[in-house]
Amino acid sequence: MIGPGSARRYRRPIDQGRIDMNQIGKAFLQGLATVLPVTLTLYLAWLLAVGAERFMGGAMRLLLPEGYYWPGTGLVLALVVITGIGLVVRLPLMKLLLRLNDAVFRRIPIIKTLYSTISDFTDFVAHMQDRQDTGRPVKVRLWDEVELIGLVTDPDPALANNTGEEETHRVLVYLPMSYQLGGYTLIINRNRLEQVDMPMEDALRFVITAGVKGGGEKSARAPRKTRT
């Protein structure tokens, strides 16, 4: 005969099983969060390396005598070619040719949208180190107690029509969105910005993950007024 005491005795294994399943689920998610970024990064790097090896390696096999080609030669050649192109485009004649090429691609319907997006982004990344104020993380004060984190993309944009006055000077700030490939571009008075003393990569990671991964007050020191 099963009484009230027997029912209480049968509850413990069920509750204990639930606790174990919760722990297993948390361990699985933790393992996934650890393995997935490394796996995807290595996979993308492998795809790029294999693509470069296949493309350049095929050309090397046609040019080199049989037996002189070693696996990986195509990848090394691709790196050398890309670096060489980066050096050659600094020449005045190549800059002129690139401007003509850029003008042609920006006039082709549909193609110009894709080309402009990729070209502007790569140009921003390539010249970010040369621009002291470009890519600098800032806090954008919208209201008294509401702030957003963004990146200064242009300290003196043409659309701002700045007159040289300190109090009315406006800058271009990009506000990325969390868990999305998108954002907003603001032309805003720099008096409403506060500089965040943290690397751009940490600021982007903090915003894109909505503060779940990295950044925050532990990574950022006390903000100070922005000077652009």
UniProtKB/TrEMBL annotation:
<dbReference type="InterPro" id="IPR007462">
    <property type="entry name" value="COV1-like"/>
</dbReference>
<keyword id="KW-1133">Transmembrane helix</keyword>
<feature type="transmembrane region" description="Helical">
    <location>
        <begin position="68"/>
        <end position="89"/>
    </location>
</feature>
<keyword id="KW-0472">Membrane</keyword>
<feature type="transmembrane region" description="Helical">
    <location>
        <begin position="27"/>
        <end position="48"/>
    </location>
</feature>
<keyword id="KW-0812">Transmembrane</keyword>
<dbReference type="Pfam" id="PF04367">
    <property type="entry name" value="DUF502"/>
</dbReference>
<protein>
    <submittedName>
        <fullName>DUF502 domain-containing protein</fullName>
    </submittedName>
</protein>
